[in-house]
Amino acid sequence: MARRRGLWWSVRVDLLGGGPCGELWPRPGRVLAVDPRHTLHRLGEAIDDAFARWDRNHLHEFEFPKRSVRAMEHRFIDDADEEGLLDADTTALGDVADFGEEFAYVFDLGDMWRHRCTVAPRAIDPMKELGILPDGPLPYWGWGSIPDQYGRQWDGDDGQSPVPAPETDPWPWAGAPDPVMASFHVPGQYTLLRDLPPTPR
User: Fold this and answer.
1) How far apart are CA 66 and CA 63, in angstroms?
2) What is the CATH number of the domain that holds 14?
3) What is the tens place of the pLDDT at every residue in 140-162?
């Protein structure tokens, strides 16, 4: 698809919750610049990028309540002839939404990472908002901590092992000040600050 300037939409995406994190509050969010000609498949990939999903081997789904339709990639499902189920590979955002409207996006129909998407009431110029004319939907604003899709806090987290001690190697360079505090953060649940002992020399 040829890139064009102007007539792009600003879509706010709030992550409501899902997976091991349950309901999130405050809710992390991202704002994406989207050409209304972009397919829902490309929008879904951009949302997953924006929320740091690294395991993409899951189905996702859009729902547009004002039009009573849903959308998924037909190539991944058996019952693609279901009434009101559009093909996300061929359906453009502008075909099913308009300025000021809300719709839903769910990533992983097992863990149900739920998002509320809101189209801004007016178009944007991507060159003014982003400084570039992107190839596809792209986030340009955001807030909040993004939870790992499986709730892992460190490499090797199995849900039972204790939090490992901080590394004792010089960080981020030799002679840098020692870390004095560690932050253990579970989005939507708690943030625990813990003083650290002096680094062994």
Assistant:
1) 9
2) 3.10.290.30
3) 999 999 999 998 888 888 888 88
